[in-house]
Amino acid sequence: MTVRITTSPAGRAAKPGRITTVAVVGTGVIGAGWAAYFLARGLDVVATDPAPGAEDRLRADVAAHWPTLVRLGLAEDASQDRLSFATDAGSAVAEADFVQENGPEREDVKHRLFAVLDEAARPEVILASSSSGLLPSVIARGCPKHPERVVVGHPFNPPHVIPLVEVVPGRETAPEVVDRAVAFYTAVGKRPIRLSREVPGHVANRLQAALWQEAYSLVDRGIATVADIDAAIAHGPGLRWAVLGPFANQHLSGGAGGLAHVLRHLGPPTEEWWRDLGRVHLTPELAEKLVAGIGAELDGTDHDRLVAARDAVLDRLLAAKAAQPDLP
């Protein structure tokens, strides 16, 4: 597969070319998902990870993900044989057309790693980080030559299944780089959103964090168990959220009056609920209570079978959504 990016150049970034090879730097859970996904879209993937045994684990992970990707639909020229492994990051990115970095969430590690990527990758190649919360401006401090080509391309786990990618520019990111990143992710079948400016945690993780704050508080105050809270979301609003976002769902709940009706009638009590939301500190005691709660909820559940069941439902959900042209 060749991904052609045809946006007009702007800023200081060099003119883009065709994307046929993606470097995946870091092959843990997220990196392995990305590698499998890019292979499934018919791209060549050069992966690298310094951990002992990383190549064998990656190939096993890709093989494990492949049945799911087959169900979702492979590109005509997709093949696991298009995966190669480099012993170091510089070698991995030297001939790549796009770089997807998935290293640890530590500034010092990112700076050392991106210094290598900045030196070895061609100047026009985008350096996209899967960072779940670090600011791209902070990551770009490791790129003395071309900070303008650094962007966050944050996927959601599992990245070989979930379509969302958050594309976040830093202070020095060229607008054309953001355009190209969005175009690339779109071309390979992802559903990117483009943030107008950086913020810690981006968008989706901040929304999750808000929910976790109240969920942790409810457990901490003894109002509900971990299992009850999971059931409340998984068998309640989470079903609707899997189809439409919070604003669209709220709009539909207002009937003919839509969101305006909801805001008039439920806005005041919602503000009261906001004022009553818990403020929690993740103390060792609370952490122990949460871990014990999830242990009780999943007691006797096989981890691998649970992951497979989750992914199977996601497969069917994504297929059902794709078959509904009226969904945004």
TrEMBL record:
Keyword Transmembrane among UniProt keywords: yes
Pathway participation: Lipid metabolism; butanoate metabolism
Residue stretches spanning the membrane: 21-40
InterPro entries the record matches: 3-OHacyl-CoA_DH_NAD-bd, 3HC_DH_C, 6-PGluconate_DH-like_C_sf, 6PGD_dom2, NAD(P)-bd_dom_sf
One GO biological process term: fatty acid metabolic process
Keywords: Membrane, Oxidoreductase, Transmembrane, Transmembrane helix
Domain 3-hydroxyacyl-CoA dehydrogenase C-terminal: residue ranges: 201-267
Keyword Membrane attached: yes
Domain 3-hydroxyacyl-CoA dehydrogenase NAD binding residues, every copy: 21-197
GO molecular function (one): oxidoreductase activity, acting on the CH-OH group of donors, NAD or NADP as acceptor
UniProt record similarity statement: Belongs to the 3-hydroxyacyl-CoA dehydrogenase family.
Protein name per Swiss-Prot or TrEMBL: 3-hydroxyacyl-CoA dehydrogenase
UniProt source species: Amycolatopsis vastitatis
